[in-house]
């Protein structure tokens, strides 16, 4: 028995290693971090790195230097930007003045051509030419009709959201009104003095509304000349009902009134690309047809109006 117990004593005892996860949760930090924390608590050095306060000071100095350099560069470039902006503004004003002078000259030449044409044509030929000019929009017209007025909503802040952006009249509103007036039997239509023809466009460029590439600003007045039934037909149209509903919901202004003795200016000369010969060509008729664009003139409408 003694020999057996001696054999048992000579055998090495088994050593069980601790579980890895248990040891990890028991000592989550590396021993090096623990030693560094102990040295810092004892007042020793924390290592070869710089103190945190020194690093923060260096970072602030570098940021301040970068801001100073950016500011000086911006200030140095500002005169050049201002000069370039001023140059562009000057060019725009010069082009506007040049465009106004050319427009005035064009009106003078058009009036001179009209006088010479009236002197050359007499009787039915002159009357037919005036009718064609009125129908195609290249002649000034005068008569009774209606005026449809649209304006942006007042800039009142919303009580709930605090937003102060007003509801605006958009180009499709003017398209809808113009087409409804044509459909109600209008013989001539103009928006803020810009005469509409069969090739007119109503578009938007950003916040601006363009009529034949010319900007118009609110309040917008769509004037139309037609018979005494024009207002009643327009008021009963779907476009007028829709605009009244939009005005009630968004706050924009929409109103229709009858106007007596309206005068609508002539539109610019159209740039025709195609022509159609008359069925029975004759000198007078051929001259009249040259001023009429292809297609029927009984229902002229702006091409950009969605008609």
Automatic annotation (TrEMBL):
Q: Does the keyword Hydrolase apply?
A: no
Alphabetical list of InterPro entries matching this protein: DUF881
Q: Name one Pfam family in it.
A: DUF881
Which Gene3D superfamilies does the annotation name?
A: Protein of unknown function DUF881
Per the record, its GO cellular-component terms are: plasma membrane
From the record, give the transmembrane residue ranges: 50-71
Q: Where is this region: Disordered?
A: 270-307
The superkingdom of the source organism is Bacteria
| KW Iron (keyword) present | no
Q: Which residues form a coiled coil?
A: 92-119
Q: Which UniProt key words apply to this protein?
A: Coiled coil, Membrane, Transmembrane, Transmembrane helix
UniProt record similarity statement: Belongs to the UPF0749 family.
Question: What is the official name of this protein in its record?
Answer: DUF881 domain-containing protein
């Amino acid at each position: 028995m003694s020999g057996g117990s001696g054999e048992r004593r000579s055998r090495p005892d088994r050593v069980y290693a601790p579980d890895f996860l248990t040891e990890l949760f028991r000592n989550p930090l590396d021993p090096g971090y623990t030693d560094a924390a102990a040295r810092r608590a004892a007042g020793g050095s924390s290592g070869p790195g710089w103190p945190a306060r020194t690093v923060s000071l260096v970072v602030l100095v570098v940021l301040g230097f970068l801001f100073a350099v950016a500011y000086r560069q911006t200030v140095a470039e500002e005169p050049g930007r201002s000069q370039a902006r001023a140059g562009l503004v000057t060019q725009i004003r010069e082009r506007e003045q040049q465009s106004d002078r050319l427009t005035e000259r064009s009106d003078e030449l058009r009036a001179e051509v009209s006088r010479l044409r009236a002197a050359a044509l007499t009787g039915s030929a002159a009357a037919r030419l005036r009718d064609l000019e009125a129908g195609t929009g290249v002649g000034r017209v005068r008569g009774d009709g209606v005026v449809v007025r649209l304006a942006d909503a007042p800039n009142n802040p919303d009580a709930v959201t605090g937003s102060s952006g007003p509801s605006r009249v958009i180009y499709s509103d003017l398209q809808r009104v113009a087409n409804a007036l044509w459909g109600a039997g209008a013989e001539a239509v103009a928006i803020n003095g810009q005469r509409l023809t069969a090739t007119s466009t109503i578009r938007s460029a950003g916040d601006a509304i363009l009529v034949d590439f010319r900007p118009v600003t609110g309040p917008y007045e769509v004037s139309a000349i037609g018979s005494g039934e024009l207002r009643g037909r327009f008021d009963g149209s779907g476009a007028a009902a829709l605009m009244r509903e939009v005005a009630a919901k968004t706050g924009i202004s929409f109103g229709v009134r009858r106007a007596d003795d309206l005068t609508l200016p002539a539109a610019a000369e159209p740039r025709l690309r195609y022509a159609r010969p008359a069925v029975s060509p004759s000198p007078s008729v051929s001259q009249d047809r040259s001023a009429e664009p292809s297609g029927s003139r009984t229902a002229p409408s702006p091409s950009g109006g969605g008609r």
